[in-house]
């Protein structure tokens, strides 16, 4: 029973090792895909998949075959992984603390403003090449094509995703009447174009809609990270027990047995014997 932790940690690492295979496969499939949207997650998926694979393999070998140094390395990397996930989770909550949509009178959907998001997120979209990749992604997903045939009544009764609200239409407050050319309007009103490949992709509202989608996804990922950290801490605790059992197994001594075959007498023992022998 004292080596039960080795069996448990070996079984858990076998499951995580098997789970890493579809993660790596998904990353390799995205690498070969021509759709630019999928290239965003390609590198993170491959890194996560290979880290889980190597870590699980080390934990399985160390616990089941009683290789103490491998299990020690497994615990060290596991500790770093837990620390990294905790730091990433805290950073994610800080970055996504700002943002959210603004209610539009008479509409169900919300609109989004770029200045409401954190500077770190806004900085991510300043690179023209990065934004061009995102725009290609939105075009390939046909997000705006789904609302191309909406009637004015649909805009009053139906909801939109953040990207649809920011990229597929001009801001609701815009006016395109003949006598509205002299009015002071949002800059996005002048960036709007009816062409299907243009629309409002150059608008700040489109960038804000993308950031809102990222913010929502990051919040979900942060919650998942919390669950993973708790799970990894439990596995780490079992791994520590397995490491102690592995070290004990290498001594070939049963648990609880006194390992000292010889005990060196204290210095005063010889003095005591000498005095009593004289008497």
Automatic annotation (TrEMBL):
Protein name: Tetraspanin-6
Superkingdom of the source species: Eukaryota
Organism: Rhododendron griersonianum
UniProt family annotation: Belongs to the tetraspanin (TM4SF) family.
The keyword Membrane appears for this protein: yes
Sections of the chain in a coiled coil: none
Localization per record: Membrane
Membrane-protein topology: Multi-pass membrane protein
Major site of localization recorded for this protein: membrane
InterPro entries hit by this protein: TET_plant (IPR044991), Tetraspanin/Peripherin (IPR018499)
């Amino acid at each position: 029973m004292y080596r039960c932790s080795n069996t448990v940690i070996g079984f858990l690492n076998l499951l995580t090792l098997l789970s890493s295979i579809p993660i790596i496969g998904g990353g390799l499939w995205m690498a070969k895909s021509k759709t630019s949207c999928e290239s965003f997650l390609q590198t993170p998926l491959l890194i996560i998949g290979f880290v889980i694979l190597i870590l699980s393999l080390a934990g399985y070998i160390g616990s089941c075959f009683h290789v103490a140094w491998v299990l020690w390395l497994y615990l060290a990397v596991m500790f770093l992984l837990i620390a990294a996930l905790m730091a990433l989770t805290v950073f994610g909550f800080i970055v996504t603390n700002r943002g959210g949509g603004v209610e539009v009178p008479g509409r169900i959907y919300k609109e989004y403003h770029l200045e409401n998001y954190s500077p770190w997120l806004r900085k991510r979209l300043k690179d023209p090449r990065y934004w061009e990749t995102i725009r290609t992604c939105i075009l390939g997903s046909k997000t705006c094509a789904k609302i191309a045939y909406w009637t004015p009544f649909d805009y009053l009764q139906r909801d939109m995703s953040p990207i649809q609200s920011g990229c597929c239409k001009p801001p609701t407050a815009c006016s395109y009447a003949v006598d509205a050319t002299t009015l002071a309007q949002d800059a996005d009103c002048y960036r709007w174009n009816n062409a299907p490949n243009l629309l409002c992709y150059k608008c700040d509202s489109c960038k804000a809609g993308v950031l809102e989608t990222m913010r929502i996804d990051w919040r979900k990922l942060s919650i998942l990270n919390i669950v993973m950290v708790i799970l990894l801490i439990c596995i780490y605790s079992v791994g520590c027990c397995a490491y102690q059992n592995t070290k004990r197994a290498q001594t070939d001594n049963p648990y609880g047995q006194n390992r000292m075959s010889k005990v060196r007498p204290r210095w005063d023992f010889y003095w005591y014997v000498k005095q009593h022998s004289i008497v």
